[in-house]
Amino acid sequence: MNIEEKLAGVKARYEELEALLSQPTDGATFTRLSKEMGELQPVVEAIDAYTKAKHDMDEAEALMADEAMKEMAQEEFYSLKEKIPELEHRIKLLLIPKDEADEKNAILEIRAGTGGDEAALFAADLYRMYEHYAAIKGWKFEAEEINDTGIGGFKEAIARITGKDVFSRLKFESGVHRVQRVPETEASGRIHTSAATVAVLPEAEEVDVKIDEKDLRIDTYRSSGAGGQHVNKTDSAIRITHIPTGLVAECQEERSQFKNKDKAMSRLRSMLYDMERRAKDEARAANRKSQVGSGDRSERIRTYNFPQGRVTDHRINLTLYKIDQVMNGVALDEIIEALITEDQLNRLAEIE
Prior knowledge:
Layout: H1 3-21, H2 27-63, H3 70-95, E1 106-112, H4 116-137, E2 140-148, E3 154-162, H5 166-170, E4 175-181, E5 192-202, E6 216-221, E7 237-242, E8 247-251, H6 257-284, E9 300-305, E10 310-313, E11 318-320, H7 323-327, H8 332-351
Parallel strand pairs: 4-9
Antiparallel strand pairs: 1-3, 1-5, 2-3, 4-5, 6-7, 7-8, 9-10, 10-11
């Protein structure tokens, strides 16, 4: 299907929705149709602007034959000729299939990788980077569980981030983040390389994922160690295993077993939803040359080199020499915007 056929199809569907909404219908159907129409409206407006520009350009070209109108018609013709490719590009961007998870909140999970105490310190630095970034964006950042080392590092940290378009901006952060720096405890000044893994999951609601109780094994255990902020002497910690997939979600942060179970179930839903979403994405993107946005957590995605003051995202070969601004969240948007643009270009190639 070429672009013209796609545009005609969008217009036809929009007009069909207008007709359907003018007829009596039940509340659920009205809401569903209104939502679809609202999503199509920007596309239709862009199509109308594109169609008008092409029509005006044809008229200007015809007027160029009139000597009295030639100069003015030429000016309009070349102005519109320059504008039309921009309008085409905007339409194509609007036609990119939307990721249904983009508008969702996110569960952020950070785990120390190779590198011992230094990896745990880096994991804590990453946690604060995202906390600062969330504050800049006006999002709510809530610590769900922190397993600290006692010397300022995090073995594991989980947070819930809520706000506008949270997942759409953070979804490319999933992967292995590597740090190169001289640890404070390194007397010889030797640079160490450590790593931490970041996972960003779209927060799933009950309507997104149906979980059968018989597929769950629920274990209780006693909160212990540096993991729970509220270590106690009762078996309030919860571990839920989804037997068909082997996925495990745990929570020991709350004193209440009920609250821990509720949080663990929420995480399990998000993990299952993310797994299903990734399977769909991988199937759709099987023919892509670039895997930006695949979120493959086994690959190194970014290096933070403190001695050189640089941050490099290896997926798009982007290097910024402003590591302090990245780590305090201020310059993180530059990397995220570049990743979003690259992903859009890859997805545009699929619809052309």
